[in-house]
Amino acid sequence: MKILHVIADPLAPDNAVNKRVARAFFNTLNEIAPEIDVHTYDLYAAPPPFINSPIIQFLWYPPGAGGFEPTPEDHSASQFIREQCARLVAADILVLT
Questions:
Q1: Which of 4, 63, 69, 83 has the most CB atoms lying inside 10 A of its own CB?
Q2: pLDDT at site 40
Q3: Separation of alpha carbons 46 and 44, rounded Å
Q4: pTM score above 0.85
Q5: Residues of the chain with confidence (pLDDT) below 70
Q6: Residues whose CB is less than 8 angstroms from the CB of residue 13 and which lie 6 or more positions away in sequence, other chains included
């Protein structure tokens, strides 16, 4: 089983009750079911790249379409999006805190 845990709370872990509850829950889950794969992504500890119109165009259209040439930042953002989408699709359970 795969769980994707997305943290979307800007408060520090010691100030956010939901983060403390989630941490306790996942620690206990790991103790009783270590075979469960939990991937945690904290949107504030590691902010995602800025997504703008050219990046969306790069995701949907082939390079060079409409005169758009992706920058290295576009490639990086595109790769990040694809990786996160793959994690979401692969997850059996999504937990948002």
A1: 4
A2: 94
A3: 5
A4: no
A5: 62-68
A6: 19, 20, 23
